[in-house]
Each structure stands twice: as C-alpha cells, then as structure tokens.
Amino acid sequence: MRHVKLGTLDVSRIGLGCMGMSAFYSGINEDDDASTATIHRAVELGVTFFDTAEMYGPYTNERLVGAALRDHRDDVVIATKGGTYRHIGPNAGERGIDGSAANIRAAVEGSLERLGTDRIDLYYQHRPDPNTPIEETAGVFKKLIEEGKILHYGLSEAAPDRIRAAHAVHPVTAVQTEYSLWTRDPEEAVLPAVRELGIGFVPYSPLGRGFLTGKYRDPAQFDSEDFRRANPRFSDENFRANLAIVDEVERIAKEADATPAQVAIAWVLSKGDDLAPIPGTKRIERLEENLAADSLVLTADQLAALDALQPAAGDRYPDMSSVNI
Ligand SMILES: NC(=O)c1ccc[n+]([C@@H]2O[C@H](COP(=O)([O-])OP(=O)(O)OC[C@H]3O[C@@H](n4cnc5c(N)ncnc54)[C@H](OP(=O)(O)O)[C@@H]3O)[C@@H](O)[C@H]2O)c1
Q: Average pLDDT in the 128-153 region?
C-alpha cells in the first residue's frame, strides 16, 4: 500500500472508514466481531489510517475502533471527530453543533477515554459552528496539540474562508469533505484552497455511500432506518436518474478488468498525492476488493470518460445548511 502525506502526517493512501460499522447504514451493530476482523485485516493489508467520530453510534464506534486497534496503536493513525454533541451546559448530552473551546476540550477527553489511548493522531471539527469564531476552535486545537492530547487537527465540511482563518491560528493538517465521482463540489474552491495552503484532503464517501459500486439498484434495498432512505440522492426519482452514472462506471470497470468500487476509488486517487480517501465497509471481502484499487491505474481515456460524468441528481444531505460553510 502506498503512503501519502496529509500536511506532515503520513498515512496509507487508502484508509478505512469505520462509520458504517456502528451507524447510519443498514446492518449496524449486527456483528461487532466481523467489524473488528475487518479492521484487523485492514492492518494486515497495510492500512494505517482509520476514521471514526464521537457521533457514530453515538460513541460506540470509537470504542469498537479503539479496542480493535489497541495492539497496533503505535503503527496506525486514528482520526476522530467531534463538536456535534454538547458536553457542557444545560443541554449536555444532546446532539448539537458546538465548536466552543470548552466543548471541544470536553469532547476530546471523551474520545480519548473511549478510544483507550493517550493521544489522538488527527482530530477534526466534524461540522463548522456558525456561532463560534473559528479562531476560538482553532485556538483550543493548538492548545490540545501543545498538551499532546491531539497530534494534528482537521476540519470537516469547512469552506475556504474558514479553512484559511483556522490555518492562520495553527496549521490545519487535513480537510475532510465528501468527494467522489458523483460529488465533485470540492473541485471548485476547497481543493484549490487546501493545495495552496499545503493542507491534506480526505475524501469521504468515495463510493457514493455505496451507490457507485453498482450493488444497489433499488432504494428498497435499504432498511427504513438507513440514512440513505432520507437522502435526496436516493429518492426514487433521483436514484433512477443516477443509475446512468453507475452504468458508465460499470462499463469502464469491465474495460479495466476491475470492479466498479475499484474504479470509483482509483478515480479519486488519480486526483493527487495529497489526498487519502476513506472508503467504508464492515466486511473483509469488500475491504480486500477496495484496497486493490491501490494498484489499479486507469487510462487517460478512462479518466476522461469518468471526469465527463454528470454530477448526481439531488442534494447530498436532506439539510445542506451545515455543510461547506
Ligand atoms: N466527515 C463527515 O461528515 C463524514 C460523512 C460520512 C462519512 N464519513 C466517513 O467516511 C467513511 C466512508 O464513507 P461512507 O461509509 O459514508 O461511504 P462509502 O465509503 O462511499 O460507501 C460505504 C457503503 O458502501 C458499501 N460498500 C463498501 N465497499 C463496497 C463494495 N466493494 N461493494 C459494495 N458495497 C460496498 C458499504 O457497505 P458494507 O459496510 O455493508 O460493506 C457502505 O454501505 C465513513 O465510514 C466515515 O468514516 C465522514
């Protein structure tokens, strides 16, 4: 597995997104042993970059990931996120965006305890907080780094102005935002900004939340509890329109003697040596399939055909007010 640098942080260029092991997608929490085995197989195959968050579960995913990686702690990068639960004040325990210094500090202490570690390699603000100056949030990250509780910090779904303001307080290591064949938004402003500043980029949902793998051809395949049922891209009408994207990915996969998932990941990887996508799976066989994208090289014609795909029909969240701000 090749490695890349996110800022100064060395990671395998394909990471493992652990969210779906505990939250949001069908089949959660059915089999923590299988999830743990998937994490262990990822380590065996050279993955050093694992992504979790306090809100996955909430809280259970950090415990799962921390326990699975305990014997590999010094060999891996654990990335987690916080700031979408309140840990202080009258609403403590409730969901809510709070990037204040006191809340972030409390969130980091909670993550350290659940992960069973003395330091978090990369800690992201999960969502921008419009009510707290980013200078305050970046300021507490700087202090937490000085104290050794976190080693690097990042921002998820922040827009360029916010990224620049945070970076001026203390260098940002990585920005994590949705980026895939059907989500090209970061190309316009976020990617140019992070490249100018020397910040790494972590594309999340590189498989389009599974859609780009071609394994889902009907929204009814998702349980009623599944996040995708309420996602505009997966509404009956948009889902049908978006199948044209998958058809083209499948065509290229056949030509490249690869799977659609591998094509989707290889396309993201082709976008630079300063990014590390984190495809998510809780199954060993899919993990192995996805990691093989590290050695898939698409031709210029194949990349051009993928670049020419129409972006998805439908917003990527039911409520877009807290992303890319
Ligand atoms: N910062 C943020 O706000 C944010 C938001 C979303 C996600 N994330 C992070 O990004 C990671 C990845 O994103 P994601 O999980 O949303 O989406 P993704 O990686 O685009 O897709 C994951 C989905 O695809 C399925 N899948 C994976 N490999 C497959 C394959 N080879 N064939 C068929 N299906 C496959 C998984 O199911 P199985 O698990 O059943 O295999 C899961 O349902 C998450 O785990 C999380 O760590 C961050």
A: 98
